[in-house]
Design brief:
This protein is an alpha+beta fold and 265 residues long. It is built from seven helices and ten strands. It has two domains: 67 residues; 193 residues, no CATH class. Strands 2-1-5-6-7-8 form a six-stranded antiparallel beta sheet. Strand 5 and strand 6 form a beta hairpin.
């Protein structure tokens, strides 16, 4: 019996030591790989911005291509670029304005506000005070602007970018870089053919009213504002519709786009 007890104790000791060693290895790997993960995440973000702006070239150096992009922070409530005092406010809250994390900002009470249900059509719950936009200039003239968008679909929050031409009304590019929608259904938001349907659509109609819309079924080919829905993924398509209309509307980038268009900033 004693020998059996010793055998059990030794087995447990070996198991505990093995778990401890494995834990140390996993923890060490996680710590050592974190800088690489952060770098890969930033690389992916930049690549998606370049894709939305129509600047991406497969095989090219992302950092070099991104030199064409001018990131700026925007005060969403006032529709203008953030000033030095506001950049200091962001630093005081623990974020770096030069490497701004909009998702983290939305979780900080000092840098965001809670949305009421009537306003929160994108189901994001909190809206950050400042958002990052990405400007592309050609001969000192604005050519394209890329804006981050996000909102809830069927199963997940979708994160992406929408790019506008220099009239600040015509879509130049659109796509998501992160989501967990159903492959083959809601996951069709990644389908290049569907993303292509956004290009050339206009946000506002001739009266200045927000008109862009994802509809159920197919949109008429000559329709300037409506985009085909996603077959079998009505709720995901509705989520995309809501998040786009929220971010380009009056409660997010709308005032900024209007001020920029009229030369007021």
């Amino acid at each position: 019996m004693s020998a059996n007890n010793d055998s059990i104790q030794k087995t447990l000791l070996v198991a505990v030591l093995l778990c401890l060693v494995c834990s140390i290895i996993v923890a060490g790997a996680a710590v050592s790989l974190k800088p690489l993960q952060i770098a890969n995440k930033e690389e992916d973000k930049r690549r998606n911005i370049l894709v939305a702006a129509g600047l991406w070239q497969p095989g090219a150096n992302t950092a070099e291509l991104f030199e064409q992009i001018s990131p700026r922070l925007v005060n969403l409530a006032e529709g203008r670029f953030a000033n030095d005092d506001e950049l200091a406010q962001i630093r005081a809250a623990g974020l770096n304005p030069e490497a701004y994390d909009q998702i983290k900002a939305a979780k900080l009470p000092a840098l965001s506000q809670r949305l009421d249900s009537s306003t929160d059509i994108a189901s994001i719950r909190r809206l950050e005070h400042f958002a990052e936009v990405f400007m592309v200039y050609e001969d000192d003239v604005l050519k394209t602007i890329v804006m981050p968008v996000h909102g809830y679909g069927l199963w997940s929050t979708l994160y992406g970018f929408i790019a506008l031409e220099n009239d600040l009304n015509t879509v130049a590019g659109f796509g998501f870089y992160a989501h967990a929608e159903t492959p083959g259904l809601g996951g069709e938001v990644d389908n290049p053919n569907w993303k292509e349907k956004w290009i050339g659509k206009r946000l506002n109609n001739d009266s200045g009213e927000l008109a862009i819309e994802v509809i159920k079924g197919e949109a008429p080919r000559d329709d300037a504002h409506r985009i085909d829905g996603l077959s079998g993924a009505t709720l995901t398509a509705r989520g995309v519709n809501n998040l786009v209309r929220f971010w380009v509307g009056d409660n997010a980038f709308g005032p900024f786009l209007a001020n920029l268009k009229h030369g007021e900033i």
